[in-house]
Amino acid sequence: MSTNRRMAMNDDLIGGAVGPYELVDRLGTGGMARVYRARLPGDGQAALAIKVLPLRPTDRAAPRQRFLREAQMTARLRHPHILPVYDYGESDGKLYLVMKLVNGGTLAERIARGPLEPEEVAAILTQVAGALDYAHARGVIHRDIKPQNILFDTGGDAYLSDFGIAQPGAHTASEDTEGFTGTVAYASPEQCRGEELTPSSDLYALGVVVYEMLTGALPFQGSTPLAVMRQHLTGPVPDPRAANPALPPGVTAVLDKALAKRPSARFRSAASFSGALNRALYSHPEQPSAEGIALAASVRVPAPPSPAPDEIRFRVTRRLLAVAVLFVAIMAIVAALILTFVR
Fold first, then answer.
1. Interval 71-95: pLDDT, tens
2. Helices and strands, counts by H and E, the chain
3. Residue 119 within a domain
4. How many domains does the chain contain in total?
5. Can you give the residue range of the structural domain that contains 39?
6. pLDDT of residue 289
7. Which of 43, 109, 224, 264 could form a disulfide with 39 if both were Cys (CB 3.0 to 4.6 A apart)?
8. What distance in Å separates the CA atoms of residue 41 and residue 58, rounded to the nearest whole number?
9. Residues 159, 41 share a domain
10. Closest CA to 184 of 231, 150, 217
11. Is the separation of the CB atoms in 150 and 111 below 8 Å?
């Protein structure tokens, strides 16, 4: 029996309602939030996803206001690669967010199968980069870019989801990182320091995601969240070609820039990051294989054939005639000059 099915059997919300929405079954869970397949009463097909976040008795007004403010801001985002938010609100002590239902899985599930092909990485990055730049241009910072928040529809198109509203009043790290908001494995150095975030922090997290897509592994790892934070703050970026030797050499420089410790040293936009990676992946010269080099060395280039004797005599005669004609012409010019002076 699947984990989701076991959870569904123990979920007292299934079959009930949150706001006007009927909850049909549970799709997953993360932190305090549960995500359900839902529909409006009278709709035959459950074509919505609704995220439900129960409020704890200890929660004050601030987390609720923060959730509702960010939900309202996210609902205004209209981009082909941002998961649409249709509705949000509060019902019976639960905050909820209604979204488009997509059934193609997450990027995390794809990475779990191993490194992605370069053309797949380039396509996903192009779509996500467009969504991220669109949000940044409207003053929205995601704050939690990670493969679990990149979803796919059945056609393979990517959707960026969960713009910083998944866990009001909670942390995705451990108690050792109290006050931290986000996911440590993808956190920028300034996020690890608890500083105010800018769009550059999202670009750093996107760099971690791209590194993971290309290699199948995270660049910074540790036994505790604090150990991972130290890697983000001071550790050098591991060469992605050590994990995936098939990558072109230029990829290393692109990821070094994307994962720079100082925000000012990173790419200025997600589109510029995407463009640089595309050039690194596809603009490198093809290297000859060892077999090709050996084959080229074994091939003898035939020398041009020597001319026949008759051809040699013809060439010599033609050159002598040309010299004779030139000599006669010169003598005629000299004679004409002499006659001119004698007269």
1. 888 888 999 999 999 999 988 888 9
2. 12, 8
3. yes
4. 2
5. 10-101
6. 46
7. 43
8. 33
9. no
10. 231
11. no
Quick one: 261 and 132 in the same domain? yes
Q: Specify whether 259 is located in the same domain as 123.
A: yes
Residue 256 neighbours by CB distance under 10 Å = 15
pTM exceeding the 0.90 threshold for the entire prediction: no
Q: Under a CB-based contact definition with an 8 Å cutoff, are residues 160 and 83 in contact? A: yes
Clarify whether residues 219 and 255 are in a common domain.
yes
Last residue of a domain, one of 284, 302, 327: 284
User: How far, in Å, are 28, 72, 89, 162, 273 from residue 68 at the CA level?
Assistant: 22, 6, 7, 13, 32
Domain check: are 60 and 187 in the same one?
A: no
Active-site amino acid positions: 144
Residue whose C-alpha is closest to residue 190's, from 263, 282, 295: 263
The CA distance from 142 to 203, in Å, is 10
CATH code at position 74: 3.30.200.20
Q: Tokens 């996500």 label which residue? A: 128
Cα distance from N-terminal residue to C-terminal residue, the chain = 125
Identify whether the C-beta of residue 276 lies closer than 8 Å to the C-beta of residue 248: no
Contact between 32 and 170 (Cβ < 8 Å): yes
Reference 88, options 70, 101, 61; nearest CA is 70
Residues 147 and 273 in one domain: yes
Contact 160, 149 (CB under 8 A): yes
Burial of 68: CB neighbours in 10 Å, binned 0-12, 13-18, 19+: middle
pLDDT in tens, 107-140: 999 999 999 999 999 999 999 999 999 999 999 9
The alpha helices in 30-117, defined as continuous H runs, are 61-75, 107-111
Last residue in a domain, options 101, 116, 141: 101
Closest CA to 267 of 196, 198, 184: 198
- Same domain, yes or no: 123 and 159: yes
